[in-house]
Amino acid sequence: MPQVSLDRTIVAAKTGNLISFPTDTVPALATLPECAQLIFQAKQRSQDKPLILMVGKVADLWQYVQGTEQEIEIWQAVADRYLPGALTLVLPASDRIPAVMNPLKNQTIGLRVPDCEIARSILLQTGALATTSANLSGAPPLLTMAEISDCFPQVLTLDIDLNPPTSGQPSTVIKWDNSSWKLLRQGAVEFTELD
Q1: Torsion angle of alpha carbons 16, 22, 25, 27, nearest 10°?
Q2: How far apart are CA 174 and CA 158, in angstroms?
Q3: pLDDT score of 112 more than 90
Q4: What's the predicted TM-score (pTM) here?
């Protein structure tokens, strides 16, 4: 599909279509959480590889997780320090997360607030979106909107020249596990609060 305006990208997302937009790490493929199967199909992605829920502001994260008051305070402190930014928090999922987002691992959800004004402006208007990097499963991330359009003709891409391009480095992923943080993937952010 052709590259389209910001307004058309937002409308497409709200109506359950696959879209792509830049973030602070690599460009994202995104859709409504309840339409997440579109991402798995487009990427030829295994069902055991969970997607990330991306939101426009930190305050929007907490409705999608469940934890004790003490845990939420700890998570909030990490979010206040690192977000918006290239850090993904894997936390216990609330019942607001559609099972189709993470068919085999639906007890947890990866959450992110990108440090990218374009991405956040989209997310603030669409609400939370199921996201992942824009590439075929197992292939390197695509870094330009033109590459994404070529690889995924069914995806509406934002008509924008990525200059400078996104960092190309994925987010750091940490998981809350038995009252402490566990590093799942070292990425763009150096997370210093591991046990």
Answers
A1: 60
A2: 29
A3: yes
A4: 0.93
